[in-house]
Write a structure and sequence with these properties.
6-stranded mixed beta sheet; 23% strand; alpha/beta; 9 helices
Length: 247
């Protein structure tokens, strides 16, 4: 059951790669935030966007999934890929409906036209995270850790090919962080392509197959995790890993 519970409806998410930008520019308040930014992600597994606050990580995700439109350039992620039953997205701020846990999950399944038994899907999702006993409770009355788990499972309930997570463990205790990181690993092994935004270097080391390092609206480095952490090429990456403030 564990093997298939997160398996995407599209059995080969790799066929939907690459994703990225081609000369993408974005203006915010009449100033360029991204200026002809280009990159590609061709790999399966877990890609992690790291960098200081305001570097462009979350903005990049919002462009990729279509919540923002570029001023110019092309986002390499087709309209078909963006259909709601293909993409799961969990923003940094937890947003839950004023409904029960079960109805929060049902809402995601309904708007994505989930094609099979929705009640059965909700049951297996809650059983997996051992929160069946909270199904009838108001989602907003749960602990912060439980709310984040429900937010992630709501995104996964639709069996997406891609999962985008923006600081999924921010302000969580170590126990809940470990639960979520283990969940992310299971989901990745099921064939879902995952992109995570984090400023936590240790989390990036634990989870990432490859890393994209953002600084001032640019991607300074991109590569395999081990290479980035053992042989960073740029001064900015070296300073960031040392915990220094970047200009």
């Amino acid at each position: 059951m564990t093997k298939n519970i997160f398996k995407p409806f599209n059995n080969n998410p790799n066929s939907l790669l690459p994703i990225g930008f081609h000369n993408v520019s974005l203006k915010l308040d009449n100033n360029y935030f991204f200026n002809k930014l280009s990159f590609k992600i061709n790999t399966s597994g877990i890609s992690v966007f790291i960098g200081a606050n305001g570097a462009g990580k979350s903005t990049c995700i919002r462009l990729l999934i279509g919540l923002l439109k570029p001023y110019s350039g092309r986002v390499l992620f087709s309209a078909d890929n963006r259909s709601v039953n293909r993409i799961g997205y969990v923003p940094q701020k937890i947003i839950l409906l004023r409904r029960s846990v079960e109805k929060n999950l049902l809402h995601a399944l309904s708007i994505s036209n989930y094609p099979t038994n929705k009640k059965r899907r909700i049951k297996e999702i809650l059983k997996f995270i051992k929160l069946e006993h909270l199904g009838k409770q108001s989602a907003r009355n749960l602990s912060i850790g439980q709310q984040q788990l429900i937010s992630i499972m709501r995104a996964l309930a639709i069996k997406p090919s891609f999962l985008f997570l923006d600081e999924p463990c921010a302000n969580l205790d170590p126990k809940t962080t470990q639960i979520i990181e283990n969940l992310i690993k299971v989901v990745s092994k099921s064939g879902v392509k995952i992109i995570i935004v984090t400023h936590d270097l240790f989390q990036a080391k634990r989870l990432a197959n490859d890393v994209l390092f953002f600084h001032n609206g640019e991607i300074i480095e991109q590569g395999k995790t081990n290479s980035f952490f053992t042989r960073p090429k740029s001064k900015e990456a070296k300073d960031f890993q040392k915990g220094l403030l970047l200009k």
